[in-house]
Specification:
flat; about 300 residues; single chain; 11 helices; Four Helix Bundle (Hemerythrin (Met), subunit A); mainly alpha
Length: about 300
């Protein structure tokens, strides 16, 4: 008789993936977009790291913290224009990204095999990393380009990206929504509050249908248009984890342009990326502010 599944008696990779695999492993009915296609490839690596981590007793939340710390270390190294520092930055950021998959796999193992629930705190911690790692990356990129060129506007572009990634308008909007929830008991269970809460990720409250199910219920939740939707290929490139891969490509191009030098002298690719990101995130913040007013008007 086979021993029951536990951290000391783990099944083969395919079976473990079926138990605790997440996005990218759920079959052919999944929407086919860039994010999920990329996830399928990453899962092949992450599930193997998860299999190695589980016997150590590490928890999902501890894995999240480890991934965030590794990501912050990699982000900080982007400010150092030495060849090996840039290579280490790319590797650490990619490892942080893979661990972002591993923590979810470990959480599902804890839930389904060990009957342990990590609660909502783990998911919250996960999203903290999703925004603060890219924010530090933007700051490090800005400093590297500024140090090379001496032009202050690269720091300004980095600041725009940082303010966007730390979600300033979104935090203000959520604070107002909480204030309405606290001060207006009559709205707590109203359709207006439900619509506003569901649309908070960038959608249109009037388009949300709380009575529907499946994709129809989510029709008004996501952002509108190819540029802003959470589920479009472009939208996934300017946030975690696509941001990591964009920066990796830019760093590799600058390394190749500086081939033979111990210092990565070229900043052409990184400056171009930073400028484009600054423009896109500036537009994104203007849109976020407008969407915040739309959300709050729905609660009046």
């Amino acid at each position: 008789m086979a021993a029951p599944i536990s951290r000391k008696h783990l099944p083969p990779i395919a079976e473990l993936s079926a138990i605790c695999g997440g996005e990218g492993t759920r079959g052919g009915d999944e929407p086919r977009d860039l994010r999920r296609l990329y996830a399928r490839g990453v899962r092949k690596l992450s599930i193997r790291i998860t299999r190695a981590l589980l016997p150590t007793g590490i928890s999902a939340n501890q894995t999240t913290v480890l991934g965030i710390l590794i990501g912050l270390a990699g982000a900080g190294l982007l400010a150092v224009d030495e060849f090996w520092a840039q290579v280490a930055a790319i590797l650490l950021l990619q490892l942080s990204f893979v661990l972002d998959f591993c923590d979810g796999e470990i959480a599902r193992f804890e839930r389904d095999i060990e009957d342990v629930s990590g609660g909502a705190g783990g998911a919250y911690l996960d999203w903290v990393g999703h925004y603060y790692i890219p924010a530090l990356m933007a700051g490090a990129l800005g400093w590297a380009v500024f140090s090379d060129t001496g032009d202050w506007w690269w720091l300004a572009a980095a600041l725009v990206v940082i303010l966007s990634l730390v979600r300033v308008p979104y935090s203000a909007r959520d604070h107002i929504m909480w204030g309405v929830y606290r001060d207006r008991p009559d709205l707590r269970n109203s359709e207006a509050m439900v619509r506003a809460a569901l649309a908070r990720m960038g959608g249109d409250p009037s388009a949300v249908n709380p009575e529907a199910s499946g994709p129809e219920a989510m029709a008004g939740v996501g952002g509108r248009g190819w540029l802003w939707s959470r589920y479009t290929n472009f939208g996934q490139l300017i946030v975690f984890p696509g941001f990591i891969n964009l920066v990796a490509v830019a760093v590799i191009i600058d390394i190749l342009l500086s081939w033979g030098d111990s210092t990565v002298e070229s900043v052409v690719a990184r400056a171009t990326l930073l400028g484009l990101l600054g423009a896109v995130h500036l537009l994104h913040q203007v849109r976020a502010i407008a969407q915040g007013f739309r959300i709050t008007r729905a609660l009046e």
